[in-house]
Amino acid sequence: MIGPEHAEIRHALGLYALGRLSAEETQTVRGHLDGCPACRGELAELAPTAELLARVDLRHLEDSPTPPSGLGRAVQERVARERRRRRTVPGRTVAAVAAAVALVALGGVGGWSLRPVPPVPPTTPAQVETRPGTPVVASAELIDHTWGLEVVLDAQGFDEGERYEVLVVEDDGDVSTAGAFVGTGSREMLCRLNSGVLLRDAVAFEVLDSEDVRVARGTWG
């Protein structure tokens, strides 16, 4: 059963993703995330929205976009041309007129209704060392989100069907979980693992097998 503390943490995930919690609240949420896969998954789903919101310029939030001048006249003229064509071209339907109007509207309004797509967050490459004697081959990139660190692990050679846990090592020696995955043997796999630890506070990630033996370690910086 989900207790009241769990529910409170879930309600705070949005503010956590935006970096709007106090230091004490952030530490509380981070501690909960370390032991709650469900909340880590929900946080990962919030991440894209949080990144977009972080780029919003609050000074222009209430600005109302203005359609380009002459849009109404352009639509009317296009409709009139389509009506004239209907008289000379058999089979022309009202749907064609509607499509033409839609194209005009999109072409004229697109400049002010669409917003630029924000750039993809930069990645930091990690140097991955694997345990000698294992067939594991791996590379990794790190993405620094406002809510924490994402490890993108590209690998093969992890024993098929075996569970592996990924831990993030902080600069003060603390260790936090970033999730787990199941090995795919010789088949290549791509895993995205999430931790509430910020990139600036992390120094490495480690992959442990079911017996807590370290199979791989990634470092950067």
Q: What proportion strand?
A: 25-35%
The largest beta-sheet arranges its strands as 5-4-7-8-1-2-3-6
What CATH calls the topology of the domain at 123-219 is Immunoglobulin-like
| SSE series | HHHHHEEEEEEEE
Structural class: alpha+beta
Unreliable stretches (pLDDT < 50, length at least 5) are: 89-115
CATH class of the domain at 123-219: Mainly Beta
Query: Can you tell me the overall shape?
Result: extended
Rg estimate, integer Å: 26 Å
Task: Give average pLDDT, whole number.
Answer: 78
The CATH architecture of the domain at 123-219 can be named as Sandwich
The helix fraction, in percent, is 25-40%
For the record, give the distance between the C-alpha atoms at the N and C termini, rounded to a whole number.
42 Å
Total count of helical runs of at least 4 residues: 5
Could you please describe the fold and organization of this structure?
- The chain is an alpha+beta fold.
- Among the domains are: 4-59, Arc Repressor Mutant, subunit A (Orthogonal Bundle); 123-219, Immunoglobulin-like.
- The chain is built from 5 helices and 8 strands; from the N terminus they run αααααββββββββ.
- It has helices spanning 4-17, 23-34, 37-54, 71-88, 94-113, and strands spanning 123-130, 137-144, 149-156, 163-170, 175-182, 189-195, 202-208, 214-219.
- An 8-stranded antiparallel β-sheet has the order 5-4-7-8-1-2-3-6.
- Helix 1 (4-17) packs across helix 2 and helix 4 (71-88) packs antiparallel against helix 5 (94-113).
- The longest helix is centred in the middle third of the chain and has 20 residues, at 94-113.
- The radius of gyration is 26 Å and the shape is extended.
- The two termini are 42 Å apart.
- The model is unreliable at 89-115 (pLDDT under 50).
- This is Anti-sigma-K factor rskA.
- The chain crosses the membrane at residues 93-114.
- Residues 61-87 are annotated as: Disordered.
